[in-house]
Amino acid sequence: MTTKNTSPSIFQRVALIGKFQADGIGQVLDLIFDLAKTQGCSVWIEEETAKFTQNQHRPTISIKDIIGNIDLAIVIGGDGTLLGVGRHLAGADIPVIGINMGRLGYMTDIPLQEVAMILPQMLAGNYDSDSRHLLSASVIRKGNVTHEGLALNDVVVNRSSLTGMVELTVKVNGSFMYNQRSDGLIIATPTGSTAYSLSAGGPILHPRVEGIVLTPIAPHALSNRPIVLPHDVEIIVEVAGGKDVNAHFDMQSLSILQVGDQVRVKKSQKQVTLLHPQGHSDYKTLREKLHWNEYPSSF
Length: 299
Hints:
Elements: E1 3-4, E2 13-18, H1 25-38, E3 42-46, H2 47-52, E4 60-61, E5 72-77, H3 79-89, E6 96-100, E7 110-111, H4 115-123, E8 127-141, E9 144-151, E10 154-159, E11 166-172, E12 175-182, E13 184-188, H5 196-199, E14 211-217, E15 227-230, E16 234-241, E17 245-249, E18 253-257, E19 262-277, H6 282-290
Helix pairs in contact: 1-4
């Protein structure tokens, strides 16, 4: 989970990537750009972010050029923005700092109002870090790969909102697990256990737990319950019946499925490193985001 960084390190090359639809993002980018420059960093704004926030007067960099040219990515937005950046940077050894302009923000955990105080300390090397593995998935149709993708949160096989239940056959490492009639199935990482899987009744996994969560979506049989599998298994989900079935990757890209198609999912060797303010606590994040009760320390 979190490991203290005891040796100061200044990031020389920093890229800012923002959710350009967010209100006030232009001013926030200006603030963070100036903070990083004050710390001695060379700073670029991702070119699409700059284009839509009228920040073209700042140095820009394309998303495809970040790998190999940048030491740190700062993401301004919500977890959805960070998911897209995380998939792109997976395996590139470029850490990511998330600044929250959204509502929940499990991964983008620096509140906007605290940026001026926290960010300079982190750029000076005072941070905690943790690495998150992704899922690697491929869609197989008649023996051929028709789609491949990565997911930091989850791979979801589900039906259209206009059709009936989907019928799925699930195997783990080639061993038959079950047939399921439901609205779909979520295959989630520990990172994704607090996302769609949680809303469908799945368990929360601590980021250091090496497991993969299978969470049925509105199953026909109430005995179909969520299950946590070992991290090193291959999961095969075959579409046995149903119409308008899709495979989603972090709910940001999709593949349209047919009966007989298989979605094969396993843990990717690629990972992304998240940087947090020093003293970061996953339990504190859960308390705040899920509004868990807090008792006095004398309880």
